[in-house]
Each structure stands twice: as C-alpha cells, then as structure tokens.
Backbone:
C-alpha cells in the first residue's frame, strides 16, 4: 500500500524555526513535494526533492532522504502569515500520481 | 493573467440531484485533475486527464463523472450515486501528466442535504 505520515498539528512563535516531518511508504518513488494551504484556500506548490539533500527557497527549505523514506520542510523566521496547513505529497506509486499526506496544521503565535 | 478558475465557490444541492462543477484553465496545461478534500484530511484524487478526450479514474471515482472536450475545461459531475458528496472540491492542472508541480483553483465547497 501507499501511505504518508506527518504530524497533525505544530505550534511555534513568530521568528522561530519549525520543522515538519513526513515519512512515506510507496511502491514506487520519484520525488517528494510540499504544498501550503491557507484555511479555505487553494494549495500552492512550495518545493520538490527528487534527490537526497536539502533544497533552499528563501525562508523555506526541504530535505529528502530516500534511503530512510523521510523528508521534512523547514520554515525559518516564522511569520504570522505562515499559519496554514502543509502537505507533503509523493510522486510515485503504480500510476505516478501525486499522493498527498493528511496535512500538518501550523499555528504561528505572536 | 494565467490561472485556473472554479465556479461556483459555494454550491448547495438536495440529495438525489446531479451537480456539475466547473473548472477552466488558461495556462495551456495538458494535464488536469480533480481532488476531493474532507475536513482535516489530505487531497484524494477523483479523476485526471492527460490530454483532450482522455481521462482516467483516480482513487475515489465512484459516483463521479468527467469530460475533457477542450484543453481548457475539465468539468466534474457529482451524481446521485455518490454516497457522501458534501466536501471541498479542488481542480488542478499541470504542464504534463505526472508533474510534481500542480496549480490549483480556489475550490468549490459543495453541500448536499
């Protein structure tokens, strides 16, 4: 089967750093994506890792370890506007479609 | 501006009625997708289309139907056979099938009573 696990909720304060983990189990794997979704809104693409290592895009970074079937999204210098749900998504499986995790709700407090 | 639009934002229907959700994109993308999102849940794939006049079932296609007569349009019909249709429906597009970067529309929140 295919499954992704990520924490349901994370809380952090403005200016801090937070890490959202994602572990996955799929029959095939091409890469790990991260999406952000504000309450009631459309998910937006944040980052993608196909190879092991860290990808940095501004305040956001994403890491992948293929051997551990594990990745994380790192958010630095947290701002109130970062309060949202964050989904990891695996590109893989029998149909090479995106398979989404259940999401992590990040609450940034002042 | 290029983008993907869905209408309406909110939709209310009675049980037993079919309802069609609109999805249009002007990004010139080949691939289009329909997802369903329930509260506190991730996105589950209903149908997807790689090219015009072709579409494939996703993980939860039962009770839904689609068409892809134009590259820009991928409407979803929620039929009366769908046991629990109340949900948030998201349409997405991508340059090609299998792309990890998908562009999402604003969604349609369907309530069936």
Residues:
């Amino acid at each position: 089967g295919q499954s992704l696990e990520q924490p349901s909720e994370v809380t952090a304060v403005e200016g801090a750093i937070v890490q959202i983990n994602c572990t996955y189990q799929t029959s095939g794997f091409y890469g790990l994506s991260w999406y952000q979704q504000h309450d009631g809104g459309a998910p937006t693409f944040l980052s993608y890792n196909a190879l092991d290592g860290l990808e940095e895009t501004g305040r956001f970074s994403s890491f992948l370890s293929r051997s551990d079937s594990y990745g994380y999204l790192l958010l630095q210098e947290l701002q109130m506007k970062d309060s949202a749900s964050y989904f990891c998504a695996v590109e893989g499986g029998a149909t090479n479609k995106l398979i989404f995790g259940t999401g992590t709700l990040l609450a940034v407090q002042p | 501006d290029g983008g993907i639009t869905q209408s309406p934002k909110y939709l209310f229907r009675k049980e037993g009625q079919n309802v069609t959700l609109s999805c249009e994109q002007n990004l010139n993308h080949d691939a289009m997708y329909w997802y369903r999102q329930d509260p506190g849940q991730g996105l589950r794939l209903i149908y997807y289309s790689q090219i015009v006049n072709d579409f494939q079932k996703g993980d939860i296609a039962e009770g839904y139907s689609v068409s892809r007569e134009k590259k820009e349009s991928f409407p979803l019909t929620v039929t009366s056979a769908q046991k629990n249709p109340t949900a948030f429906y998201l349409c997405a597009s991508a340059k090609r099938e299998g792309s990890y970067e998908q562009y999402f529309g604003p969604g349609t929140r369907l309530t069936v009573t």
About this structure: The mean pLDDT of chain B is 93.
